[in-house]
Write a structure and sequence with these properties.
Layout (H helix, E strand, L loop, with lengths): L2 H24 L9 E3 L5 E3 L2 H16 L3 H24 L9 H10 L5 H19 L12 H27 L5 H16 L4 H19 L6 H19 L2 H18 L4 H7 L1 H8 L30
Antiparallel strand pairs: 1-2
């Protein structure tokens, strides 16, 4: 993919993210309080950054798509991830009576209870499968009868799982300011810089990150499920379209392993114990325990190894 096409995707994503964020700030649907949450410091933070980033990666991804089919796949993955993430954001159980996490949502579904989190799992999963079916993988061959069709069905199942699991993993990282956006930028960087079939989607993620990262680091915004799921779905779709089957299988195994580990291990604690990750995670963030009014005069510092708190 040409440099010009990637630049167009990045610029579209950045401008769209900024414009949508400004429009939402002027007149938040349902009022400001609907979108306000309390972060890990006990301070108010807005979820409006999530829909803005989702709009940015969608617009930039479509502009940078190498074909109409790839653009349609990215649009389906992004819009379903955003929509069901938004449902969970705005109707979540704030009293804490429903267990959070993938394990909790799947457990509720197994008992016949449809929580908003469970609905999100089903909705994003269905959208991911449609996106996978629309995408023609990097190493796809025209599906014929018998074995060829079976291989294609297996590819759709694996690729759909990769898209959905990527959406969930980025959401798991949205527990501290800037963490999810930094991780997304690092994951998208190879495609954005090197081009290829996933270059446009990678550039779109980079553009949206550049637009939203300052507000996220300043703790004015957080991605929430809508933004984090959307960015993760784009990254998963990028991998499906740009990587050969062995790489996709390896990525799926890695993403699933991290997701399972998150049920038992605190990402924040692991990051705090790992010097390189701690420095990267803390870059640009307000120092721990410094009030917002004092943050402009204080230099960035690594986060304290405190426990993870839903909603940051």
């Amino acid at each position: 993919m040409s440099v010009a096409r990637r630049l167009a995707a990045a610029l579209t994503a950045r401008v769209t993210t900024s414009v949508v964020r400004g429009l939402l700030d002027e007149e938040p649907p349902g009022g400001v309080r609907l979108w306000e949450r309390t972060n890990h410091r006990g301070e108010p933070v807005s979820l409006l950054g999530g829909p803005a980033v989702a709009a940015g990666v969608l617009a930039g991804g479509v502009v940078g798509a190498p074909s109409a089919r790839d653009g349609a796949a990215l649009a389906v993955a992004t819009t379903t991830a955003t929509a069901f993430g938004l449902v969970d954001d705005l109707t979540e159980d704030r009293a804490g009576t429903v267990r959070k996490g993938l394990r909790g949502h799947l457990g509720a579904l197994a008992r016949g209870e449809v929580t908003t989190g469970g609905l999100k799992v089903l909705g994003i999963g269905a959208g991911a499968l449609v996106a996978a079916a629309l995408s023609r993988p990097h190493d796809a061959r025209p599906a014929g009868r018998g074995a060829g069709a079976a291989v294609r069905l297996a590819d759709v199942a694996v690729d759909g799982a990769l898209i959905a699991a990527s959406a969930n993993l980025v959401n798991l990282l949205d527990l501290r300011p800037g963490r999810a956006l930094k991780a997304a930028a690092l994951a998208a960087a190879p495609a954005a810089l090197l081009g290829g079939r996933g270059g446009g989607a990678g550039a779109a993620v980079a553009g949206a990150v550049l637009a939203e990262l300052p507000d996220d680091l300043a703790e004015r915004d957080m991605l929430g499920d809508s933004g984090a799921n959307a960015v993760g779905a784009v990254l998963g779709t990028l991998a499906v379209q740009a990587c050969p089957r062995p790489v996709r299988l390896g990525l799926l195994a890695g993403v699933v392993a991290l997701t399972v580990a998150s049920e038992k291990v605190s990402f924040t604690a692991v990051i705090a114990r790992t010097p390189v990750l701690r420095e990267l995670d803390g870059w640009g963030r307000r120092p721990a325990h410094v009030p917002a009014a004092e943050s402009s005069a204080a230099p960035p510092a690594p986060p304290a190894p405190d426990a993870e708190v839903p909603g940051r």
